[in-house]
## 1
Amino acid sequence: MSTSIAARPRPAAARTGPIAWARANLFNTWWSTALTLALGYLILRGAWAFLDWGVIHAIWQVPQGPKGPNTDICRAAAGTGACWAVIGEKYRFILFGFYPYAQQWRPAIVIALFIALYCISANRRFWRKELALIWIAAMVLIGILMWGGVFGLTLVTESQWGGLPITLILATFALALAFPLAVLVALGRRSTRLPAVKLLCVMYVELIRGVPLITLLFMASVMFPLFMPNGFDVDKLLRAQVAITLFAGAYLAEVVRAGLQSLPKGQAEAADALGLSYWKKTLLVVLPQALRLVIPPLVNTFIGFFKDTSLVLIIGIFDLLKSGITAVAEPAWQGFGNEVYIVLALIYFAFCFAMSRYSRGLERELDRARRR
Amino acid sequence: MSDTQPAILLDKVNKWYGAMHVLRDVSLSVGQKERVVVCGPSGSGKSTMIRCINRLEVHQEGRIVVDGTELTDDLRALDTIRREVGMVFQSFNLFPHLTILENCTLAPIWVRKMPKAEAEALAMEYLARVKIPEQAKKYPGQLSGGQQQRVAIARALCMKPKIMLFDEPTSALDPEMIKEVLDTMIGLAETGMTMVCVTHEMGFARQVADRVIFMDRGEVVEQGPPTQMFESPQTDRLKLFLGQILRGH
C-alpha cells in the first residue's frame, strides 16, 4: 500500500552573492552587526595609519653626501613617514652579512639553489631515488659556492658568512637531518624487543626536550670547546647546526610517534600475518600511513624551527635577523629598525606561508588519492 | 612431509594476560585439508588461540607446531610459518594507502620476491575468484565491508598459503554482506584448503566444517562433527551457548 516518494533535486540555496553572505555572517543579529562595525572601524583605522606611514609620507631615497648617504630628511620625517631608503641602501648587507661585497653573487646563487631545491622536492612527481642525488649535488655545489677556494673562487671562511644563506643552511640541514633521526628515535621508543634502544631514545627525547634551545646553543658554543682537546676545533656554525638538528630531532620524534600511536594495531598485525619483516612492515605499511596522519603537526614543527634558527644570533652567528639588526647599527641609519624588521618579517613570512600552503595542498592531494 | 602429519598441532598450550589465564591446556590437532570451526562465547579464548597459531600472540607454555615447524623465538621459524599461514581478520585490516591490487601484490613482491607483473597476474586471478576483479584500481575506503573482506581473503591467498585462519570474518559486516563472504569461504573450502575459522555462523559450520571446537573460559570444552555438536551437545556449557545463540537468531 505504500507509495514511494520520487526523488527531487535539492532546492537551490535561497540567495547567494556577497551581499547575502555578509547579511548571513556579518549582520545576522544586532550583536554581530555592532561587532562588525566596531572591528571594521579599527581595521580601517589601522590600515589607513599604515598606508599613511608606509606609502604616503614614506621616503624612498636619500641623497648621497660626501660621507655616505645623508639621512637627515628621514630623521625629519621620523614618526610620520617610513624611511624605505634604508632597505635600498642596506639590502645586500641584510641578505648576505659580512660576505665580501664583490663575491656576493655566490650566496645569491646559493639562495636561488635552495629555493629551486625546495620546489623540486615539493613536487610529488620527483619523489624517487634520483632526488637524493639531486640533494647531494646541490649540497656540494652550495658548499663550493659558499667556501670557494677551488675553481678560482676566493676562499671565504664561515666567520664571514651571513644573512639569508645562513638561515637557509641552518634550517634546511637541521630539518633534513633531524627528520630521519626523528623517525628512527620514534620507532626505537616504541620498540618492545630492544629495551636498551628504547631507553636510549627516551633519554634522548627527554634530555633534549627538557632544556631550552638557547641553553643548547650556549653549550654548543661555549662549553663544547672546553671538553675538547687543545687544537681540536669545530666551527661555531657547525656546532650550532648540530645543536639545532638534535633539538629539532627530539621534537619531530614525538610528532612521528604520535602518528605511529594513532595507527590501528590491525595494520601492523596484517603486515605481520603476511610475513613482512620488521623493516618492510615499517617502510611499506606503517610509516606511509603514520606520516600522512601527522603532516599538520610536522609542518607546524618545521615552521617553528625555521624561525627558531634566528636564536643563533645570541652566539654571534650572523643569520638573517642578526644581519638586519647589524645593518641599522651604523650611526647614519640608527633608529630605522622598524623598516628593516618589516622586511625581515616579510621574508620569514614568505617561507613559512609557502610551507603552510604546501602542506595543505599535500594533504588534499593525498586525500584525493585515497578518496575516503 | 607426510600427509599423516597434522597441519597444526597445539599441545597443552597455556597463555596469560598478566594474571589472567586465557588459554588453559589447549590441545588441538588439525589434519591436512581439514576444516575446523571454533566457536564459543566472547572471552572464551578462541581468537587468542587462533592468533597464537601465527604468533600474533605469544603463548607461555606448551608447544605449537605448524606444518612441521615449531613456533619458538626463532625468527626464521616464524618467517617460514607466516609464509605458509594466511589470516583474515574481523576488521579486514586492508592497507588504506594502497590500491586493492597493491594490497594483494605487496607480500608476494616483498616476501616471495615475485616479479611485479607475475604478482599482478596472480592477484587478478584471485580477485576474479573472489568476484571483484573490476575493483582492482580502487582504494579500500571506496569498497563496501563485504567487498573489503573478500579482498582480504584474496590478499591472503596471493601468498599461496597452505593453511588459512579466519578470525570472526563476518562479525563486522552488515547482515546483507555476510553471505557474499561466506560464499567465498565455502568456495575456498571446496578447493581443499586447510582452514581454521572462528565464527558464530552455524549454517556455515554445518555446511563446511569437518569438526567443530567449542571453547569456553580458555579451554576446549567439547569437539566433534557439526551435526553431533549442534544436535546432541554433551556438556551443559555447550547446551547453554547453543541456546543463547539460537535465541539470538
Note: Strands of chain B lie at 8-17, 20-30, 35-39, 61-66, 69-70, 85-88, 163-167, 194-198, 211-216, 219-224.
## 2
Amino acid sequence: MKSNRFQVLSDAEIKTIQQHTLEILETVGIKVEVKKMRQLLADLGCRVDEAKKIVYFKPSVVESLLKKAPREYLLCGADPNRQWPINPDTRVFGGLGTAINFYDLETGEYRPTTLKDQTEHIVLFDHLDNIVSNQMDIWPNDIPMQCIHVEAIRSWAKNCTKSFGMGAYGVLATKDMMEMTSITMGGRDKIKDRHPFITIVSIQSPLSTAQIQLEGLMILAEWGQPALVSPEAMAGTTAPVTLAGLLLQQNAEVIAHIVMAQAVNPGTPVMYGTVSTIAEMRRGTVALGSIETGMISAGAAQLAHSYGIPCRAVAGATESKTIDIQCGVERFQSMLLAALGGANYITCVGTIESTTAGAHELAVIDNELIGMVQRAIRGVEVSDISLAMDVIRRVGPDGNYLMEEHTQRNFRAEHFIPKLADRDKRDIWEKAGKKEMLERSRDEAKKILSKHKERELDPGTAKALDDYVEMVAKRSLDEFLAAEWEA
Amino acid sequence: MSAEILNELRSAIVEMRFDDTEGLARRALEAGVQAVDVLNDACLPALDEVGVLFREGDYFLPDVLMSVKAYDSAYRLLLPGLKEGAYESRGRVMLGTVEGDIHEIGKNILHALLQGNGFDVVDLGVNVSPAVFLEKAKEHKPDIIGMSALLTTTMPVMKETIELFAKEGLKDSFRFIVGGSPLNQRFSDEIGADGYGEDAQSGVELVRRLLAS
C-alpha cells in the first residue's frame, strides 16, 4: 500500500473548522483592499463596510463559489509536452523563496544575488529530476527592480523546459507575467488548458488582503491561470498562538481568496496554500524551520482536500544562516511532513535564512532529499513479484541475493539511489579526497551548469521576448504605482 | 553476417540478456568465426563496456553480475574451442575465504567482476586452510592468490597462509592480495601481502595493476 498519510485533524475537527470558517467570514469579515472586488462581492449579495473596506462573506456565496474551483488541472513546462497533473493526490516539488543574498558557487562568499545566479538557478532546475517548477526564487540586485520579473521569464524561456512561476506584484507586473508567458508558449490560446506559469498570491494575515496581490489574483483569474493563495501566518503574532486557531484563521483567509478568484472567473485553477508557521517567541520573528511548519502543512492539506482543492505547502525552509546541520535537519523534516501530510505542490528548494538567501549547492541537495521523500511516500508495493517467494525458496539459508535476476530487475525501483550521500568505506572516501556532501553537491552543480545548452527558441519568439523586456526596462517605478487600481 | 552476430552478442552481454548469449555464440561459431575471435571481438569488448558503465555509475553490482552471467553462458560454449586454439587468458586468480570464516559475499562479487574483466578465476570457496591454499596453488598455478575475511578473528589466517608459502619457498612464485571489511592497507603491508582492495572494484584494479607490473 501507499504510505499512510500524516494527519493532524480528525474528520469531526475538520467539520468544526469548516463551520467556524463560515462564521468568521460572515461576522468578522475580510479586509478587501481593491474597490472593484468589494463591488463584485456586494453585487453577489455580501455585506460590505466601505469605510473599513471589510467584506462580510455570505455563507451561500462562499459555498457556491467554492464548488467552482477545479479539483484537477494540468501544469506544463516551457516545453508543453512536459506535463504534470495537479490534484489532491499528486505531489510536485518546486522552488521557493526570495533569495536576495547568495553563497557564491566558486568562492563560497556570501554576497548580494545577481542575474547570473538567477539564470544558473533556472538552468539547475531544468536538470534536477525531482523538481518540476521554479518559483523565481532568486532576486537579483544588479538589475533595476522593475525588470526582475521580465528578465526572469526571458531566462526561463531560454533555459528551461519545466514550469515557472512567481509572486503577483500588482497590475502591471502580473499582466507582464501573463503576456510574456503567452509569448513564450506561442499565444494565449496555448495556455488555456495547460498552465506553464503558476503564480503565488500572498495573503496578509490576519484576515486581510495585500492590495497588489489581490489585483494580481484578479488578473490571473481573468486569464484563467493558476493562483496559489497562501498566507504566511505566524502562530503567536499574526495568528492565534494555537495551531488549531491558526489553521482556522488561515482557512478563512484562503477560502475568501479562492472565492474571490472564482467570483472573477468561475473555474479559475487555484491551490489552497500555506506558508504558515509559528512565531519565534523571543523575538516575534518567523520560524519556518520549526517542526510545527510541517504539522500546519499537514492540517492545511487535510482542509484543502476536504473542499476538493489541491494544496500548496512550504517546506525545506530553515532559519539557519549557513549550510550546517540545522539547515539539513530543518529542511528535511518539513519536506517529509508536507509530503506525508498530502500537500500537492511543495515549494521547498534552494534556500536558507528564512528563504531570504540561497545557494546552488542547496538546489542540488534538495533534489536528492525530494527523491528520498518521494520514495517514502510511495510506500511498499506488495505483489507476487515483490514478495519474491520463489526467489527466497531458491536462495535458501546462507545464500545471497546479489546475483539474482530479481535483484537486478527491481533494485532501481525499490531502492532510492542517492547521488550525493556517501556510502563508501573510509579508505575509498579518503582516496577520493575526503569530500563532504556539500563539496559533492558543488561539483554536481558545476557539472550541470557546464554541460547546459540554451534552448533553441523560434527567432520570432526570442525577439518578442527581447522587445518586451526592453519595453519594461523603459518604465519608471512610478508607472507601476500609477497602474494600481483603487484600493 | 558474422559481424552482425558478434555485434548482437556484444549488445546482449551489455544488456544482460543472458538467455540469448549462448545461442548467439553458437550462431557465430556456425558462421565460421573461431572461438577465440568470438571472445576477443564480442565478449571481452562487451565486458570492457560494462566496466566503463560501472565506473561511471550507470551500472550497479546487480547489473554487472547479470552481464557476467550473460558472458558466462557464451564463454562456456566457447571454452572447448578456446582450448584448441591460440587463446591466452588475461590472467588467473585464485580466491578463497580463509579458515574459520564463511563470509563470501565480497569474495563472490570479486569473483564475478574478475570474470567480467576477462580473468580466469579459481574459487576455493569458504573456510579454506593455509594447507589447501598451498595445495591448490600448486595444482592451478594462479598468477594471484586472493584471500578474504570478514572477521577480525580470522584475519591472522592470512598471515599464516603467506608464512606457509614462504616456508615452502613459494612466496615469490605468486602474488598475494587480501580484502574484507575489517582490513586496511597497513594490515596488508604488515603481513607481507602484495596488495589490498577496499572493495571488489578496487580488487579488480589491483589485479590489473599487479599483472601489468
Note: The longest strand of chain A covers residues 199-203.
